[in-house]
Amino acid sequence: MAELVQQYLDRIRAEQIDTRDGALANYIPELANVDPEGFGLSLSSSDGYVYESGDAALEFTIQSISKPFTYALALDLIGQDAVDARIGVEPSGEAFNEISVDDVTKTPKNPMINAGAIAAVSLVPGAGPDEQFDRIHDFYSACAGRRLEIDMDVYDSEKATGNRNRAIAYMLASFGVLDGDPDDVLDVYFRQCSVKVTSTDLARMAATLARGGLNPLTGRRVIDAHVVRRTLSVMVTCGMYDATGDWVSAVGMPAKSGVGGGIVAVLPGQLGIGVYSPRLDARGNSVRGVQVCRNLSSQLGLHFLSVTRESSSTLRAVFDAGPGIRVYEVQGDLLFAGAEQVLRTADHDRGRYDVAVLDVTRVDDINDAARGMLTGMRANLTAAGKEAYLVDPDGRVVPADRHDDYDAIVFRTLDEAVNAALRRCAG
Ligand code: DON
What we know:
Bound molecules: 6-diazenyl-5-OXO-L-norleucine
Strand content: 15-25%
Number of domains: 2
Oligomer: single chain
Strand order of the largest sheet: 2-1-7-6-5
Distance between the termini: 57 Å
Largest sheet: 5 strands, antiparallel
Shape: elongated
CATH superfamily of the largest domain: DD-peptidase/beta-lactamase superfamily
Structural class: alpha/beta
Number of strands: 12
Radius of gyration: 26 Å
Number of helices: 16
CATH class of the largest domain: Alpha Beta
């Protein structure tokens, strides 16, 4: 069966193989020395199975795809408030290397443009640039699930030609946004841009984000889930530079591109994608990479704002199980919208029962909002002179050791609950 998915990837890649639009980045001389035909595509499932097509083992420099990862690391290590004090989260609509800060706050507009990325580097704790870089290097490697290497030629080339980044770093230092020596910060930034990855590394790094910070290959938690959410948010709004609006409309996945020719894209909870093809469009995004992602999204239905089957499927069945006893069977993943539907339906029916039996046996997952709403439902019903019973054999809504806290009447099977309700109504 896996061949089927392999065939999709091979076909989508083959559709772009003759595309030769765009040009290699040449503002850093070493970047122009790669084979323009290199073309790799990798997709990791959220449980870590990787499909590869084409040059998926070919290494290239990560470049700006480093930015969301260093931002995540800074958030993880010093916390969101400290990071927010130095870097905004507003799209800039400007080129990646714009020498700019926010007019009012005098901080970089977001961490995906160079100004914000350089500021993020300076926020990574460490006794000096080597220690800071070691942390960054270890972190990228933990996300990829293997030790990544550095391309020293690209690093030298970046350093030799990085005057624009120097202008940005010194400007930030003048506004008090950078801690430490701007040249030290830049050295770490140039090194992080020169880390070598393959499209498969990117797919694995993306899958780690898709899994909320758990690397599905190694099973290690490498990022806190809240940090992942913030990082993905910034990737959605700022990840593809001034082409972000186009990207979100057409592809609909949090993503980040780099001038090395890579693109990383994440479908939260589902999968991670890495693509490599070094010819870039005018905005610095891989031409074939963007096209492949557009086609993957439309052909495999990956847009994160596609409205899937609605929460109407939450209420699986509603029926009377005896005089004054009404049963609500709930299924699937129960989030706010589903819980709201359950509450509203039970409320609407109120005149029809003395005991409402809520059966969550078939609920797969539930979040805190929905849990709070369902336990609150019982309080409301008792206040109205009714009873609410819960059938919750796996402790999804009310964990077994917390029945007392919630004052809940919990049963293991629907039969037990209905029998208890019959006795109550008879008594
Ligand atoms: O800052 C630079 O110039 C590069 N080393 C990284 C820039 C980059 O990848 C921009 N991306 N599209």
